Amino acid sequence: MTGPIDFATVFDRLPTPYMMLDRDLRYVAANQAYLSAVARPWESIAGVHVFEAFPAEGESRARLEESLLRARDSGKVDHLPLIPYAIERPDHLGGGFEDRIWSATHTPIPGPDGRTAYIVQHTQDVTAIQRLKEVAFGRGEMAMLQDDVLLRAGAAGAQNDDLRRLFMQAPSFMAVLRGPEHRFDLVNNAYTQLIGWRDVVGLPLREALPEVVEQGFVTLLDRVTATAEAFIGREIKIALQRKPDGPLEDRFLDFIYQPIIEPDGSVSGVLVEGSDVTDKVLAGEQQRLLLDELNHRVKNTLATVQAIARQTLRGALTPEAFARAFEARLLALSQTHNALTDSQWAGAGLRQILGQELAPYDPARIVMDGPDLNLPARVALSLGMVFHELATNAAKYGALSTETGRLLLTWREEPPGMLSFEWREAGGPPVSAPSRRGFGSRLIERSIGAELRGQVAIDYALEGLACRFTVSLDRVF
């Protein structure tokens, strides 16, 4: 069992830059990614006002301060899609100032009184990609695309050629939409792959990607164009037709709609940039499902242990007898858990479970006849306990308590998806029905009937006990 989570360590190891300010805009925390991005040690900025640590004047300083104060005073998240902000380089890196472009999100953290106590900044250095876009897009009209979706170099030099190729091959998807119809002016390879390799350059969005119209993306682009304000989307779900005449596929995207503002202040188009985070989103959903399933299994296991303890105590005459019986039953439960862990809880083989419970006994006296079926996890756990009780009873009172007794175990899957199993003992001492129902019989009936919703019958025949049951193998637990 692990100890409490060290959130300070988690914060410091996050791969993207984070820092935290108090209400007076003084540093109270920063992770290693942030310190690396600004090339500062924590000791140099701890407790320092953010604008003392990174002085600036003019519009950039004003925009950053306004965003921080909006987040603090409104209690709402505030975004700065793009902001140029020069960073002073330390002496060991040559000194001076370096022009950088950032994208920042400011999240207020309330204190006990409900007022904002801290502001968390998540920031990303987007200098390289912004400069790449300037080269790829130019200050005026876009170059047309060749048949292979590469930009024409035009009169640009060799460096521009290299940067444009880099733009086209960038891992994030990019596109430029122009005019009121949001006509595709440029797409890079990643964007083309995202939309199923459709040739969309020159087409309006409604014609190029008709499936997105009713999903609100045209309206969103209209708003960005009208307001000249960027939109940042996180894990936005979109249904795309990625194969000709194929069904719509759900994808999840992180993206930004950045207005392209001309020198006269008008918006001529929208730059689309983002990443397909479908795998990350689905992995997160799967992790949540696994945690829910783990929580469910732990509760079931604890309930089983509680029942085992209660029933074992009820039938034990001495503390020593209780300890022996209780430990043996817990070991049986543990062995089945180990088998399921080996398969990542995808199930366990019926012969494997039987082999674990019957390992202490002479295999020459045990006859097994049936296919090696894979048992779902819940079925394996329940049957592991059932087989343990039957084997323990056989060793104490039944066929395995003598030198001539045998176990005859037969099973089949009939009809498909249903396990029919018979545990029959022969050659042991004469059998008679017990005067009272013991823990073993109650556990067997509860495991088969209540937990697995199957049917069970125990026959105390004179020549040997027989236990027959049927359970479903198709049931999802």
UniProtKB/TrEMBL annotation:
Listed EC numbers: 2.7.13.3
Single GO MF descriptor: ATP binding
Signal transduction histidine kinase HWE region domain sequence ranges: 293-372
Catalytic activity line of the entry: ATP + protein L-histidine = ADP + protein N-phospho-L-histidine
CDD domains for this protein: PAS
Domain of life of the organism encoding this protein: Bacteria
Domain PAS span(s) in chain numbering: 5-73, 161-226
InterPro entries, alphabetized: HATPase_C_sf (IPR036890), PAS (IPR000014), PAS-like_dom_sf (IPR035965), PAS_4 (IPR013656), Sig_transdc_His_kinase_HWE (IPR011102)
SUPFAM superfamilies: PYP-like sensor domain (PAS domain)
Top EC class of this enzyme: transferase
Protein name: histidine kinase
Pfam families (alphabetical): HWE_HK (PF07536), PAS_4 (PF08448)
